[in-house]
Write a structure and sequence with these properties.
about 170 residues, Fusion Protein Consisting Of Minor Coat Protein, Glycine Rich Linker, Tola, And A His Tag, Chain: A, Domain 2, elongated, 5-stranded mixed sheet, alpha+beta, 2 domains
């Protein structure tokens, strides 16, 4: 089935796949700057007056999501074992304020990013925004020492989910 679509600007730069319950795949084109989707840079230029969207049927038994897809929005978010209160308690019990940061009176919020894998393990741990003085390294150490999480889910499938988390360092 083909559907005609017109777009005001003339260039469509981001393609996304949308998956329905019945495993119908609809290729949707939206306006956006070039972006990385599922680990690959994608750019698609289409004629604004004759752009087409094609619908296809996928095998209902196959996994509709490519193996390396990292989601930023899911039906069910990953959860630390015991929930948010347990995550906060884990950080409080395991954090060690670096002596260099303590003596220099450095404090602030370190924003950490990581991927919760399908099995609940944490990978791709990194800093989005740090404060220095050894606090960034301590935030990374804390996240890397966390136990496995309950994975995020899209529909009934466990999926890889990008998760961002602030860790606040405050001196007494």
């Amino acid at each position: 089935m083909k559907t005609k679509m017109a777009q005001k600007a003339g260039i469509l730069n981001k393609l996304r796949l949308s998956f329905g319950i019945g495993m119908a795949l609809a290729l949707m084109a939206t306006m956006a700057p070039q972006e990385t989707i599922a680990g690959k840079n994608t750019i698609q230029t289409l004629d604004a007056k004759n752009a087409e969207i094609l619908e296809m049927q996928a095998d209902a038994t196959s996994n509709p999501f490519p193996k390396d897809t990292i989601f930023i929005k899911v039906d069910q978010w990953p959860v630390f074992p015991g929930g948010d209160e347990a995550r906060i308690q884990f950080i409080r019990e395991n954090i060690r304020y670096p002596e260099a940061a303590r003596s220099a009176r450095i404090q602030g919020i370190v924003f950490v990013t990581f991927v919760v894998e399908k099995d609940g393990s944490l990978t791709n741990v990194g800093i989005i925004r740090g404060v220095g003085g050894g606090l960034d390294e301590e935030a990374l150490r804390i996240v890397k020492s966390m136990p496995k999480w309950a994975p995020g889910r899209q529909g009934d499938q466990p999926v890889r989910v990008q998760f961002n988390m602030p860790i606040r360092f405050v001196l007494d």
